[in-house]
Amino acid sequence: MSHHGTSERPGHGPAPDPAPTALIVAAGRGLGHAMAEEFLKKGWHVIGTVRPGTSRTKLHDLAETAGGRVEIETLDINEPAQIAALRDRLAGRTLEMLFVNAGVTTADEHIRIGDVTTEEFTSVMVTNALSPMRVIESLQDLVPATGIIGVMSSGQGSIGNNETGLREVYRGSKAALNMFMRSFAARQPRSSRTMLAMAPGWIRTDLGGPDAPFSIQDSIPDLVNVILSQQGTPGLQFLDRFGRTVPW
Q1: Closest listed residue to residue 120, CA positions, set 129, 131, 111
Q2: Which pLDDT score is estimated for 3?
Q3: What digits encode the pLDDT tens for the residues 26-84?
Q4: What is the pLDDT of residue 78?
Q5: pTM, whole model, 2 decimals?
Q6: Strand ranges (DSSP E) for the chain?
């Protein structure tokens, strides 16, 4: 259904307010693209980011069929100047949801913490923990009191649930992300905004690999439904795609 925010409908007065807007950081492929597609289906306007220099992505395909409801922005989240530039470009906009999906892992995903190089450790921690928080700190003032601020965490970021080890650097980066979100939320104890760290499950993506038990289609519609079901619930929660609380 097309949406014209200013049209008059006979006998009904003005059309409803324009669609709510979601900014999904890292939406070119995988989980981010699937989230963009799902929010679009639910009538939202989507701004999705891709890395600079990226050739055509699934997000570009989605934008072609979305009737102007998908905007594509470029952002390397590891470049603070690019975060600031995006904030300037979005000045005056309202983001009913700000969601950061970016994430990487080590070349050898099972490398032990004592064996990883400093360079690779730093790369994973900056991309998975520091840069998402820089995005949130920079853009949070565009999210209204009724809005949602979320990050793509991981069940592997749960300290309480870690009984198998493995993926040590990735786990550590997601635990750090969760901790920084806790600090962010603690700084604003009276905020009415919904804050979410989401654990989507082990999914077959470039990051999750071919052995993961779940497809994007198994996970993301559920994940988006949980996110939307929490809108209006203040404070921070760590949830899986079924809406269950994950132990920190």
Answers
A1: 111
A2: 47
A3: 999 888 999 999 999 999 999 999 999 888 999 999 999 999 999 999 999 999 999 99
A4: 97
A5: 0.89
A6: 8-9, 13-14, 21-25, 45-50, 70-74, 97-100, 148-152, 194-199, 235-240
Q: CA nearest 25: which of 120, 191, 172, 142?
A: 142
- Of 177, 189, 192, which Cα lies nearest the Cα of 143? 192
Amino acid identity, position 45:
H
Contact, 203 vs 31, CB < 8 A?
yes
The DSSP call for residue 51 is: -
CB distance 175 to 199 below 8 Å: no
Mean pLDDT within 149-176: 94
Please choose, from the candidates 91, 31, 93, the residue with its C-alpha nearest in 3D space to the C-alpha of residue 59.
31
CA distances from residue 215 to 199, 211, 220, 234, 237 in whole angstroms, order as listed: 14, 10, 9, 30, 24
In angstroms, the CA 116 to CA 57 distance is: 31
Distances (CA, A) of 195 to 172, 188, 244: 21, 11, 15
Task: Assign 3-state DSSP to the chain and report helix, strand, coil percentages, each to 5.
Answer: 35, 20, 45
- Confidence class of residue 98 from pLDDT cuts 50, 70 and 90? very high
Model confidence over 183-231: pLDDT tens digits?
A: 999 999 899 999 999 998 766 566 566 666 677 677 888 999 999 999 9
Single out the residue of 22, 223, 126, 193 nearest to residue 185, CA to CA. Answer: 193
User: How many Å apart are CA 96 and CA 91, to the nearest integer?
Assistant: 14
